[in-house]
């Protein structure tokens, strides 16, 4: 652990020091350090890739360690070979302790024994910074682990790294003056999304088994969509947030939530169940005491569902590849025996007022953090904090009344919507995640397809469902000139489409359930995943 004052340093010096420390922390594990032992040397690139590809889920990790095919230390070193971050010494110590426990007791510590995990740079880990992409938060190490990290470690998970995020977290791309920009693994000119873009990049490069992020407007779902991954955004009181640093802390009416990201559906379900089974409400006063309900998960997984498909939020129309993939998924679900119907939200998505909650303080919270480090604003964050003046307590109350009214209207629409064929009510929604796939850096703007579900606090899962295709999307692309955009954001999105540059980019879909129905949304998403991806 290294500390120093940032007040007497230029922001560029602070950033350079942090990046230098990160490089130094890697030296022992690259073979460049003379103290590296043969047992601790990194596996070669081919062996590392083979291990991280083959052991990609929680179940496979437990199976491999239990059968002695690999130790926790060996698996950790294979994953370190895919990363460039700074918790490796502590992670290896923890992995060795797990190996010793297994040798002595012949059993695993818990359901996450030896599972390599990484964290968005918001989660407090004792002895390490939680910067949120702010220069001013560098060299201010946490005094203790946050609740989630403490629980994960107790179940045997090995925390090997923290990952990049945008300055303040309040953007759906990943860039900041402290660590720099994170790029998409398929094209460095494109963003991996955000705000949990560092985790998405690590998962896409097989650098971790489970990545933990946060989501206040789409921050685990958007990068998962852009990188072909799986993610859960739970309702706000289901998973523990205590000890997770966040901008605009104290803004409780559109709260940020913790969510896992994985490379397969099984891991998403298993890690969520593991955390809930560990009774997070005993450690975080905001967590509701709702145990894991296997019957909800199994019911959604095993029976025909009524799935309402939202193709357009009424604000920004989706690019042709997004529309095609959504239609293909809907058709496949119908062919598999599910009842598929349309979901037309009318003006409900247009009236979503998340941003007014984010900036109720006139941007003061974020501005203070930026000024503390003397760093420049990234353009999107600067635009966010300059949207208006702080509002009064009375005006804040009026916002809350508007929020409750919109929540009630969405609930009423859900309750009143019935499938024409069977008369059954809607089980889950199926929607786009974004109106586009991954885009060039600085081009992300509209997050209406995700942020509305933060606003009404519904759980949502993202899963991969296809990709942009020059062949499959060519005809629809030719017809784009006939469309007349309905507003400036719609026009921006339409004009940004580039089939040649976006060819091959992943496309996800979003599955949404009612509030606190995490088991149901995971079960439904797993059923959809089996049909779409054959898993």
Description:
The protein is an alpha/beta fold. Helix content is 40%, strand content 11%. It contains 20 helices and twelve strands. The protein has helices at 11-27, 45-54, 58-66, 72-80, 88-105, 147-154, 197-204, 221-227, 265-277, 294-302, 320-335, 354-358, 364-373, 379-385, 393-416, 448-455, 474-478, 488-496, 499-502, 518-533; strands at 116-120, 158-163, 175-176, 180-181, 210-215, 230-233, 257-262, 306-309, 339-342, 428-432, 460-467, 506-512.
Write a concise keyword list for the protein shown above.
535 residues; alpha/beta; Amidase signature (AS) enzymes; 12 strands; 11% strand; AS_sf; Amidase domain-containing protein; Amidase_dom; hydrolase activity; hydrolase
CATH-level-4 superfamily name:
Amidase signature (AS) domain
CATH fold naming: Amidase signature (AS) enzymes
The CATH class assignment is: Alpha Beta
Q: Terminal Cα separation, in Å?
A: 43 Å
Q: Outline the biggest β-sheet.
A: 10 strands, mixed
Helix count, DSSP H or I runs of 4 or more residues: 20
What's the helical proportion of residues? 25-40%
Keywords: Hydrolase
InterPro entries: Amidase_dom, AS_sf
Family: Belongs to the amidase family.
Protein name: Amidase domain-containing protein
